[in-house]
């Protein structure tokens, strides 16, 4: 029975690795496909070229978790098929198209675990396309993977736990952090105290990051609205509004982000039913507590299935591993499953507190100047989206794409989709849910035209 | 339930339906356009965008020439130029046999005003050095070009609306029948339409409306798959086709190249389709080989759409053979974009004058009943948009 199972796990981050571990322990050999050269995901990304930094330097307080995950994955090497630097670019019923080493290969699967993770959620602002503006995640990758900072004097701006984590990591690494600009008011942070009983470690860690930043004399501003990033060939400064007055600061790089957005294109291609997640302000695949989507045999775990963080991703990944065994009528550890679901429930409740502490700036899109670039791949301005809503009565995001090209470029809406939906919703007076979500199409990321044709991946 | 009375009810707000609506409004007739979704969201809006007369069956050429006169006037007609570019259409022959086929075609259309220019391998290399590989020769139709279907189709609908047509989107027609006082159409929008004339321009969804009047048609579906590259430096100065099919390509002003030549596959709900991995890669590879400028480019997106397909590759255009006041115009078989605005005018002629000066006999709906073999219109040449089946 188990020999016939051929699960495909997309993503070798916390969720994907834990799912693979459960399956491998049950004698099932999954195929794990990951875009990165080494396992660990974005959060526990490994250095490609070894340097003198310790796990403690790289992952801070999460070093033990990162090391444990890397060790687990290394130990699985003989029990799984692993394809790093490989892109699952299309999903059909029971078959995936994978681009790897300049070839496209087909992989048949009986079960599919989508552990596709998340990327930074961004909204545009004046000057956001000037070289030197990075996402918070991008700033973190530069540091973790390449050991370099995004600039000599960096301003971090936005909201979400990552804002303080990355600023703190830059500080620890010896980079100059010019300021932290938080788009939420300070009062919002008091919500974190509600999370102390359930997740004291996480809350205290967050408080420590902020406290260390302040102790080192780094200005932290709250309730900030961005006005513009200044510069030409390179960022030279940032101007913002705070309590009605404008301030500005010289810097040569800006790291910004507004929380995370789930990577859901493969779930869409797999035919999963989507629901609107009010907390994430985004559409995501519907799933049960075990990670089962609406499509039998397709499971979703980790941030790709709704943003919940790395700890939840490990638990949810493991839970989907057990779900596959359950659905194949194989023995499972029901005690363990109950514990996983209990822990996931607790994190989910904490997530709501986090969201109140790091709220998304809901008024940002409506306040954008008309001439700001919304879709940077196709160079479409905010004004074009508003004009389509006003003059062509556009009330739906795919129609906006068809009439304006927003989301048609290289990123396929992965970067601009959030902003397009927010701007459209504010322009046509509908809810974010009502304007819908961009339909995904293969390839989910660009493919070289000279990609060699298909052969079996197995 | 309210009833709306109109001279003409048009089922299907694609290019044919909306260009007919626009022409009818100019004749002063009242028009209602009904579309089950957005106007121009199906084949009219998601086709390749070739504006091409070259390669069409001879029977289509007069209609195609009529449309040819409309394309340069888009700005004046619908308010935008639709990115229409009179780039020329270059049809490549990869073998001597294919070259011979191009020569035969050129001879047959010599008097029809296409002004085809034949060239051999050397001439081709000299004029189009950006085309590589073993190409035996080519045929250029200088007056052909390409446009953006996504924009053109939506703009025709808006122009018809501005001209006074009542455009009802998201309004599927559930039932249509002819009563003594005219046609009655019931819709899903709580409104019924009463019309003196009905135009069936429902594209891939047209067969049930024809069957409702005792005219079953062998209308199939195809799902062309298009590939879009990232923007690259301008290189492709003409719209490219190939004798025998397999690849067609054009470069838009922004720099993206659009490449077709294969088909996608329908989803369980056959109104929707998806690209298929292997054929998509094969056409990407063909493009990379044929156009060295694209060798290191990336494909950034694919799209597919649903098009109505007739066994003899000719559309159905003209009066119903069973029902006075009913006009069919559908089944363009992957080659409707260029001729659609011409068909719209012909439909308006038929309603206004009872006849059209443009010959359309070959496209009569009863041709399958009459001969069992279709129109007998020229089957020798491949329309450019034929895809190699996966």
TrEMBL record, chain A:
<feature type="domain" description="FAD/NAD(P)-binding">
    <location>
        <begin position="8"/>
        <end position="309"/>
    </location>
</feature>
<dbReference type="GO" id="GO:0016491">
    <property type="term" value="F:oxidoreductase activity"/>
</dbReference>
<dbReference type="Pfam" id="PF07992">
    <property type="entry name" value="Pyr_redox_2"/>
</dbReference>
<dbReference type="InterPro" id="IPR036188">
    <property type="entry name" value="FAD/NAD-bd_sf"/>
</dbReference>
<feature type="domain" description="SoxA A3">
    <location>
        <begin position="378"/>
        <end position="451"/>
    </location>
</feature>
<dbReference type="InterPro" id="IPR023753">
    <property type="entry name" value="FAD/NAD-binding_dom"/>
</dbReference>
<dbReference type="Pfam" id="PF17806">
    <property type="entry name" value="SO_alpha_A3"/>
</dbReference>
<protein>
    <submittedName>
        <fullName>FAD/NAD(P)-binding oxidoreductase</fullName>
    </submittedName>
</protein>
<dbReference type="InterPro" id="IPR017224">
    <property type="entry name" value="Opine_Oxase_asu/HCN_bsu"/>
</dbReference>
<keyword id="KW-0560">Oxidoreductase</keyword>
<dbReference type="InterPro" id="IPR041854">
    <property type="entry name" value="BFD-like_2Fe2S-bd_dom_sf"/>
</dbReference>
<dbReference type="InterPro" id="IPR051691">
    <property type="entry name" value="Metab_Enz_Cyan_OpOx_G3PDH"/>
</dbReference>
<dbReference type="InterPro" id="IPR041117">
    <property type="entry name" value="SoxA_A3"/>
</dbReference>
From TrEMBL, chain B:
<dbReference type="GO" id="GO:0005737">
    <property type="term" value="C:cytoplasm"/>
</dbReference>
<protein>
    <submittedName>
        <fullName>FAD-binding oxidoreductase</fullName>
    </submittedName>
</protein>
<dbReference type="GO" id="GO:0016491">
    <property type="term" value="F:oxidoreductase activity"/>
</dbReference>
<feature type="domain" description="FAD dependent oxidoreductase">
    <location>
        <begin position="7"/>
        <end position="350"/>
    </location>
</feature>
<dbReference type="InterPro" id="IPR006076">
    <property type="entry name" value="FAD-dep_OxRdtase"/>
</dbReference>
<keyword id="KW-0560">Oxidoreductase</keyword>
<dbReference type="Pfam" id="PF01266">
    <property type="entry name" value="DAO"/>
</dbReference>
<dbReference type="InterPro" id="IPR036188">
    <property type="entry name" value="FAD/NAD-bd_sf"/>
</dbReference>
